[in-house]
Amino acid sequence: MKKKKLLFEETIEHETVETLEENLSIENLEINNPNLVRIDMNVIEFPLFSKNNHRKKNQAIKYYFNNNRNTYIKIEPVVGDYIPGDFEEKIFIGLLKIMKKKGFLQSFYVSSSEILNELGLENKIYYKKLKQGLLRLSKTSYEFKNTLYANKVNSILEETISTKMLDIKIIELSKDQKLKEYYRDNRIKEVYEINISKYFYENIIRKGYMVYDANILLDINSSVSRTIYMLINKLRFTKLYLRLPVLYLIKRIPLKFDNKNISRTVNILENACKNLMINDLLEGYNLIRNGSWKDSELEFYFSESHNKIKQLQFYDDKNHFIKVLNNLENEDLIISSTEENSLATLEELKNENSNFISSEEKILKIIELLPKGAKDLKTLPKFISSTIEIYGFDRMLLVGEYVKLKNPKSILSYLKKTLENNWADEFILEKEKEKEKKDIQIKKSEILEETNEAKKKTDNERIDILLQFEELPNEKKIEIEELVYREYIKKAGIESKYVKMAFDNGKESLIVDYILENNIFLEKEVKKIEISGDKLSKSEIGQLIQKNGEQISLIYGLDELKELQLKMKVAESLLGEEIITELLILKKFQEVLKKL
Q1: What is the C-alpha separation between 306 and 313, in angstroms, rounded?
Q2: What is the distance between the alpha carbons of residues 296 and 276, in angstroms, rounded to a whole number?
Q3: Using omega within 30 degrees of 0 as the cis cutoff, is the peptide bond preceding 254 cis?
Q4: 266-309 pLDDT tens trace
Q5: 317-375 pLDDT tens trace
Q6: What single-letter DSSP state applies at residue 83?
Q7: Could you give the C-alpha distances from 585 to 100, 285, 536, 579, 581, in angstroms and in order?
Q8: How far apart are CA 185 and CA 11, in angstroms?
Q9: DSSP code of 564?
């Protein structure tokens, strides 16, 4: 019997999506500058945008980054489409630039003309291509396994994460009066509501990003040159020289190659380097051929001016971001329907960045540190306010100490030069080391104090229990003593006069242990600490160090001095641990015992 098809039912037959696999393992080898954008570390590190100009429809790609094939990224297009390429990368950069202008909100409205203006494209033929690119970005699936970096947890996420670069909603202005009033241009018929994926957005607004000039990135015509530029600037940090294996670059970009045509692939890298030199983004490069092309290396050279530009870009961007956080309530922007989450995240960041938020109290504190005469300088407060937003209050306090030490005639001039030339860096490093030592000593003292307090508390508690036991009627005492003895025999595995003698020698302690373990007639509730992975308080840490130290000493027959050394070394080994659990304390005891 033929099944009748319902009127509202539609059958869609999907084509099979082909997946290419590539092994990229290298195991064996006022806005001051509105063009500055933050690029997520994952976008810099990994090939999220294809460099292949001959992509096929329905073709996914899976990049493996180790030989075990358990570290990978899979990029899968929607059926009937391609994976994102060079044009989509430019769109994403343009959107990041617009996101900055919109106050770093995760969700924002934007028109086609706004995006194309950022890309420097005015021809109407690009409108259709732009829409296709945006839809491609919103529909392509990215699957990360042991690869996605998340700054919020400051590590690579081990689990499998499936996400998109962004989500979009296309809104017709004729159906939204508020947006229609905002976009007064009658030529604009629709706008996009953009929502950047939370994984990429979290990195962009926190410290999982690098700052680049969007105009420079968009002006680099070659996608290979653009990728090399972003990657080497991340890897070099502030070094003026960088040396990388050619195979590393080929696999990180990535470029197609085999042993027969690798010389052609190296030629593509060389042309990309020449392109960067023409644009003054690279001082020079040198190709070193070590026998075969496969073993060759590339040297990259940079100038001090490249570092100055890089530093200025970082501080300009940070300064603007702090201003945005300080002005959240006053932003005159039209907000998308999902803006509440964005604002909540930014409010959270505002609290985290309090060190970079200026105040009259902070300014006065720094001025008081400077040499005499600083209070008379009228322009100094404004200058210090701006430096707090750039360098942070803590750093500026140390810079103030440094300038006071040098006692210059021209205080403001010397302060500016100190910041520009990093004169105070060594002084600050020494001060930070001193502070770190003091902090460690304070924490060490606190832990030892807690340990001693816990011991006193435990000793007093045991004495109280013993006194309570002695006050019991003889019948009750005999009953409990018999129970404790039977328990002792069970553990000993035999009953003899020698076992009885051993029991009598430690009877009082054994009775107290039994009462504590079984919560017998206690006036105060005795809290039994279970082994768990929960974060412990300082007092709980001290109690556990004391308790485990005594038990281990009893088992291994340690004298009082050895027991004290054991507990102190465990306490010291816990310094610097952010989250301390009972499991961690037990592990530390095992480690220290091996060394005793």
Answers
A1: 11
A2: 20
A3: yes
A4: 999 999 999 999 999 999 999 999 888 888 999 999 999 999 99
A5: 877 877 777 766 555 554 454 455 556 666 666 666 778 888 889 999 999 999 988 99
A6: P
A7: 46, 52, 10, 11, 6
A8: 41
A9: H
